UniProtKB/TrEMBL annotation:
Domain of life: Bacteria
Gene source species: Shewanella psychrophila
Coiled coil feature spans: none
Identification of the protein by name: Transposase
Gene3D superfamilies (UniProt xref): Ribonuclease H-like superfamily/Ribonuclease H
Stored InterPro entries: RNaseH_sf, Tc1-like_DDE_dom, Transpos_IS630-like
Length: 176
């Protein structure tokens, strides 16, 4: 496959939920704003992938992590990859990222990052953006409320293709 027909995707998973992150808040000088910190334990697991070259994205929100869900996510990436192109999916070495998980996809390959190197995966900045702009300092009623908030956050992020490209593009990952 010629390099100009290869698309690099960055993939990762993140957990969002009731024990959410708190961030700094703007407040009037001399005041002390309150930030919500829940004690409940409901979470969603967010599988996300971005292709900074094209601005394409794929995501799945689930109640748990598994090899089957990872396979579904790769299937979505494979389907999103245009005919005649090949997707190289860069991911970490999580337990459900097995070596054979992409074997059935003719248009998709996997490259695993070195252990303990999240700074090499630009989708980590996406998780940070979602938290900072939509999900931090919030209280959630339950699982469905978390799913709805994550869906709104993701849709807000992907609504601007230029944002996707600028946040996730890396010079070392340009194939042309």
């Amino acid at each position: 496959m010629a390099l100009e027909r290869v698309d690099i995707w960055f993939q990762d998973e993140a957990r969002f939920g009731q024990q959410n992150s708190t961030t700094r808040l703007w407040a009037r000088k001399g005041t002390r704003p309150r930030a919500v910190r829940q004690q409940q334990f409901e979470y969603v697991h967010f599988f996300g992938a971005v292709c900074p070259q094209t601005g394409e994205t794929e995501a799945i929100i689930t109640p748990y992590l598994s090899k089957d869900i990872m396979h579904q996510h790769l299937s979505l990436i494979s389907q999103r990859t245009k005919a005649g192109r090949h997707a190289v999916v860069v991911m970490d070495g999580a337990g459900w990222h097995t070596d054979v998980i992409a074997d059935e996809f003719n248009n998709l390959s996997i490259i695993k990052l070195l252990p303990y190197s999240p700074e090499l995966n630009p989708i980590e900045q996406v998780w940070s953006w979602l938290r900072q702009h939509h999900l931090a300092n919030r209280s959630f009623k339950g699982y469905e409320d978390i799913v709805d908030a994550c869906s709104i956050a993701w849709n807000s992020f992907i609504s601007d293709t230029k944002r996707v490209v600028s946040l996730c593009r890396r010079d070392w990952a340009i194939m042309t």
